[in-house]
Amino acid sequence: MTSDGVIPVNIEEEMKSCYIDYAMSVIIGRAIPDARDGLKPVHRRTLYAMRELGNTSDKPYKKSARIVGDVMGKYHPHGDSAIYDTLVKMAQPFSYRYTLVDGQGNFGSIDGDSAAAMRYTEARLTKVSEELLADIDKETVDFVPNFDESLQEPDVLPARVPNLLVNGSSGIAVGMATNMPPHNLREVCEATCRIIDEPGISTEELMRIMPGPDFPTGGIIMGTEGVRDAYLTGRGRCVVRGIAEIEEEGRTPQIIITEIPFQVNKARLIEHIANLVRDKRVEGISDIRDESDRDGMRIVIDLKKGVAPQVVLNYLYKHTALESTFGIINLAIVDRQPHTLNLKELIHEFLKHRVEVVRRRSEFDLRKTEERMHILRGLLVALDNIDAVVATIRASRTTDEAQTALVTKFALDEVQADAILKMQLRRLAALEQQKILDERDALAKEIERLTGILASEASILAEIRKELVDISARYGDERRTRIGYATEALDKEDLIEDKPMLVSLTSSNYIKRIDLDTYRNQRRGGRGVIGMATKDDDGVENVFVANMHDYLLCFTDKGRVYWLKVYDLPEGQRTSKGKAVVNLLNLDGDERVTTVIPVREFSSDHYLFFATRGGTVAKMALDEFSRPRQTGINAINLRDGDELVDVKATDGEKELILTTRFGQSLRFHEEAVRAVRRNAMGVRGIKLRHGDTLQAISLVENDHLLTITEQGFGKRTEFDEFRGHGRGTMGVRNIVVDARGGGVVGSRAVSDDDEIIVMSASGIVIRTKVEEISIQKRNTRGVRIMKLDDGDRVIGFTILDSDEEDVEEEE
């Protein structure tokens, strides 16, 4: 200290000291529960104040405002809102596994609705909370002064119920937090009894009794590994799923959610699902309704036809709070210090507390019983000498003189003499005398019992065990949360039938998949049915068949490639337009998908054969495209003004036929084109006349080459009609191209028992057998395959080969 009375202080040390004091105050006095009764100070003070107010379960409700005022004025000098919020939460059956307050009025909802103002609601203690307060008047716990030292409040409650495990707790302190899940009362009591019987029992054995938390909102815990970690170390995590059932009996399938994870807001969950549907992040949901009532929770999700309900449900589990993780942190106050406790330590701390409570309660009861026994002995002496006692009292001038005479004459003490003087005359009756004798005998037995309890800790533990069995029988109930097997995130492919689908792509890049059974077989020359609703300036450009599990390599006009799975495509109706590819792929600017081919596996001995509008070709190994990226990769390097028009999958030993719009076709072996790495430039495949463009690549396989023109004409041609030419030449005429037939749309190798699906620019689709299309020479126009309206044109066709037809028949 300086001469002027100033004490120099190191500011750093002072800040440290002050902050540590503040932190410990928050930890001990606010945020972390006591390991003994499982309560924080505000909860303990609220329950104690309600008891002192006579607000017990067998009495009428009292206004919450009155309770809050008592708590705040006597024990908890903080804001009334904090106390009321505590009261409200202890009354919410979706927050507490076993509620400690019985509320009457609006105490909030699982939708996040707040409780009514405290002046409108009423409350009282529940029977379970009374068990926490039982024996508090028997000197079982220490009392400490309240905030102004005008009253005494309990430092901890006696807590017959292992409340910390039963109801759990959560709180954020300074530098630490606790998050303890609730458990089933029956299981906790049984596990505690088992530890009393077998102190060395393993955690694995305890988990057979307590398999995991039991949340008030139910749900299912996926696997026990995280729970086991928490039981062993005090920290772990458990994945909790809501309970949902799939109903497919009605016109459309439904997902019915009847339970949600603990601490999940139902209204926000529904809102989140609705946002996912609005943003088209989840497909197949047509409506969401909340049909919950006083009988239970019921969220109904209507699905569209043809949607796999399990896939939608799995998506909801993955992307919404319908599946949540509960991080377990078993942090509690032990000896006024925060400690992370495992399961056995939590139970031991409760048992240690109960041993002390039962010991102090038994000592209190024994003392009171012995005091009463002492008085009864004096009364019995008086009854045995009633005439002398009466004479002595009558001979005394004052009460004090009478008391002194009784002590002297009958060898009594002052307490006994006082009791005799206060004894009523009616106690002299014979029956009243017998009651005193019966009471003496009962007290003797009680003294013997209490002495036996206090004889050893084993006797005290036996008493605790008896109480736990009674608590379990009176308040225990069935488990609400199920324990399930741990599962990885479900793979969509495990839930989706691998069946062939028709995939169509429009010139405006709308894509969809349709079940092949949508189109019935028609004879050649039919008008077909509407296959897709398109805009006036849009038309179907590419159609093909792929299995649901296939990869789709989406090649763009800029020579880039993107990946999709067939099941990721939206399933549309026959007349629906589909979904814009830009919503499925991360395309750049005006980039447009021109070719989509299905691939099941990426192997190095298979190839992709590329053809560009300008007649350039390139061959690349299929495994060059086995590593997908969200932003796509470069497939082929294009010259200025050129674009990619077609890609075919080959095995390296195929002959190919390139077909142009003007009807020229060039046949050559793919060995004439050496394999290059991805993003190469390629070489000339066919020499083009001025104005001509390359339309398609066909593999020389199956029985014939099918060529179709824009005006619906087509024919099959023998492959022998096309003699081999060197790569880079003009080839030979394939089909007559004139105003009536129009330019070539494409050519494909077909078998006689195949079927084809032809689609027009206006969205008309026809499915017909290949054998109905005649075989003609090269220098012909072909036959009418599809009748078209004025201004309409054929823009694409796909082949249904015989293998795919066999699959359909088996299904």
UniProtKB/TrEMBL annotation:
SUPFAM superfamilies: GyrA/ParC C-terminal domain-like (SSF101904), Type II DNA topoisomerase (SSF56719). It is found in: Cytoplasm. The keyword Transmembrane helix does not apply. One of its GO terms (biological process) is DNA topological change. Its EC number is 5.6.2.2. It is an enzyme of class 5 (isomerase). PROSITE patterns: TOPO_IIA. It catalyses: ATP-dependent breakage, passage and rejoining of double-stranded DNA. Keywords: ATP-binding, Cytoplasm, DNA-binding, Isomerase, Nucleotide-binding, Topoisomerase. Residues 32-495 form the Topo IIA-type catalytic domain. GO terms for cellular component: chromosome; cytoplasm; DNA topoisomerase type II (double strand cut, ATP-hydrolyzing) complex. The active site is at 120 (o-(5'-phospho-dna)-tyrosine intermediate). Coiled coil: none annotated. InterPro entries: GyrA, GyrA/parC_rep, Gyrase/topoIV_suA_C, Topo_IIA-like_dom_sf, Topo_IIA_A/C_ab, Topo_IIA_A_a_sf, Topo_IIA_dom_A, Type_II_DNA_Topoisomerases. Heterotetramer composed of ParC and ParE. Belongs to the type II topoisomerase GyrA/ParC subunit family. Few gyrases are as efficient as E.coli at forming negative supercoils. Not all organisms have 2 type II topoisomerases; in organisms with a single type II topoisomerase this enzyme also has to decatenate newly replicated chromosomes. NCBIfam families: gyrA, PRK05560.1, PRK05561.1. This is DNA gyrase subunit A. It comes from Methanoculleus bourgensis (strain ATCC 43281 / DSM 3045 / OCM 15 / MS2) (Methanogenium bourgense).
